[in-house]
Amino acid sequence: MAAVEARHEPLGTPSNLTLSSNNPTCIALLKALPGKVSLPASNGYSASLESYFSLQEAEITPYCVVSPTNEEDVSTAIKMLAAPDSTTKFAIRGGGHTVWKGSANIEDGVTIDMRAINSVEISENKTVTSVGAGALWRDVYSVLDAMGLATSGGRAAQVGVGGLTTGGGLSFFSARFGFVCDNVLSFDIVLADGTLVSANATSNPDLWIALRGGSNNFGIVTRFHLRTFPQAPFYGGQVFYQIETAPQQIDAFAKLAGDPDFDENASLITSFSYTAQGGAIQNSLKYPSATLNTKPPVFQPFLKIDKQLGDTMRVSNVTDFTTEQGAFSPDGFRQLYRTTTFKNSRPFLDRVYTLWDTTIPLIKPIPGIQWALSIQPLPPTITSRSGPLGGNSLGLSPSDGPLVNCLLTATWNNASDDDLASSTAIKLFENIEKEARYQNKPSLYHRYKYLNYADGGQDVIGGYGMNVKRRLRRVSARYDPRGVFQRQVVGGFKLWNKEELGAAIVSTE
After folding, report:
1. Cα distance between residue 81 and residue 105, in whole Å
2. Per-residue pLDDT tens digits for 181-214
């Protein structure tokens, strides 16, 4: 296999900190994993915190940070943290791009930082890419682009492989190959008892399907084996417009999203944004066809809209396009995501835009505010791909018809504005979902919440549907019978709520 060596960052834990630490779990981990555990005030500890995408996550201070470099290290750490007499809570982080506080970091606990397990290996026949769970998508694409290959992965270069993939994952290639998780041929995962197993179509197939959307509820994934295919440079980029073109944008979007013959090469995100400089609209257009096409008919309605402020349309590769996309979301700010899903409807899309627009006076005084509403199609062309590829746990079906994913992203400067930004976002989405449910006949509401865009208080697992939730609970009870990844890993979206965790996790309901 062609391979790229993993990057390892020195932890630099001072010996005096080892002696002065008063946390027994961290002392034990220091002894078991020398050179791979960082305490507060060490270089490794600071580097880990500073690498989070959102300031809310970077401000959390765990007892210590464990930085494994291989699967054996992960197993050692889990055996200690999940021992029957251990009550230490811990967090698992890959790329650290989830924005809400406590999602992948923990106060008064231990954070396992997977970033050093990040090698990228290509099979000899070039059909499988094996990726360490701590890799970023830019690590993957830089290898594959050089070989004329691609895999379904994240659309922003700095996003981590682990969280996006186990949360479902949307890619430039979703209309052709489904969700990112649908393209995982096999997972390597360390279970709560420290054993390393594979989960695929023939070995632990129930766990394989559960990990396709079930997130961090079953163990620590250490490696993903991803379906890989040839891909030459393709057409794409960004087009920017004046905010006054919103009606034309919504019209073009609704027609594309509702097309029964949805173009399997089309990837579109339409974003309406507000900053202190005013409003604007941005279309992210990608057309990763097997044969280069620089004038795809599917995008012409967008490209013909007047009042353009500029564009970056070009022929390039995945690395370049994902670097560009990621540049619109820099690190170092307070961040918020919130999401919902509804059925495609031109009149309702108008209403959603209006509801978003009415929130601008509320958040306008916030220093440094960037407030953006993004919509993207979820047509049956995407949701139909999962079944032939083995299935997933997202609870979506082609029978749902054309859906729209709706995302609010916000960044701002000061913690004092957290409550205002959060409460405004929550109220906005309450209004969107209320109108989708009750003011449209038939209802346009859909329960699905895309995990990678969800806020911590949203019911992602419930949004998969009761049948999927029950199945995920059965898988959890089988592979994690003591509920370590429910009780001790408190970040992420859990299968049982806090009240239900008062009893032993043996129920399949």
Report:
1. 15
2. 999 999 999 999 999 999 999 999 999 999 999 9
